[in-house]
Amino acid sequence: MDTYSEEPATQHRATPIDTSAGALPRHVAIIMDGNGRWAIQHGMPRVLGHRQGVKALKPLVKECARLGIEVLTVYAFSTENWSRPAAEVNTLMSLLEEFLHQETPELKTEGVRIRTIGNISDLPEPAQNALAWARQETVNETRMVLNLALNYGGRDELVRAVNRWINDPSVPQTERKLDPGTLERYLDTAGLPDPDLLIRSSGELRLSNFLLWQLAYAEIYITDTLWPDFTAKEFSQALYTYQQRARRFGGLG
Ligand code: IPE
Ligand code: IPE
Ligand code: MG
């Protein structure tokens, strides 16, 4: 599949990124895809690809913090991923707990606040507990937000948002007319800016139910690199590509 970057992968610019080359995104969203293919390529079981994939995340969070990117949202488990074999789902949940217990203290020292989107109440209890702990530990951090999309689906989020609004007793019956600004206040992402840049690893040209509302005007960067091989260096390439884009939002620029 094609790599939709303006420079070939072999010409990745080294970090640090040139901030004079254009505005950096406030919010970057990533579909971390390709762990299974990475494992197969290395003759390993899929679950080891997931383990390797988790390792790719921390350098990117640190890079975002360093660059002043306000929000990094990562798609870690979709509402559709429950259809995978139970052993793989269980491994993914265990890796989530392990990541939170191991990395939260260091992320906290970096000023990272951990939050989530998705239907967290349907995750296994140990995962919910680890998330509640990590959120609480980092609740006062303000340098950046690491937003974990877990049991997340864009359609599910929109339906839950509308239902929350319908059932909100503080909304007077006479005002029951939904507009975009009101809906946004009931989304899981309430309070966050929309993603400016969407990155998808491993070459698939689809959204896979990610942030269907919020990605309306995101710039898209798709790379063939499999997620465990996605480095801070390639991240800087994605940012550089973003800096070259002309965003028009339907206007004339
Ligand atoms: C992404 O990697 C991780 C999750 C979806 C949880 P995949 O597991 O989808 O890897 P591929 O797409 O099969 O290579
Ligand atoms: C998207 O990847 C979900 C995550 C990365 C968590 P998938 O591997 O589930 O997407 P499809 O099935 O290829 O569309
Ligand atoms: Mg996949």
Short synopsis of the structure:
The protein has helices spanning 35-41, 46-55, 57-67, 86-109, 125-137, 154-166, 180-186, 232-244; strands spanning 27-31, 71-78, 112-117, 144-152, 197-200, 219-222. It is α/β, with parallel strands linked by helices and 253 residues long.
Structural commentary:
By secondary structure, the protein is α/β, with parallel strands linked by helices. The chain contains 8 helices and 6 strands, in the order βαααβαβαβααββα. Strands 3-4-2-1-5-6 form a 6-stranded parallel beta sheet, sandwiched between helices. Helix 6 crosses helix 7. The chain is globular and about 60 Å long. Mean pLDDT is 93; it is low at 1-14.
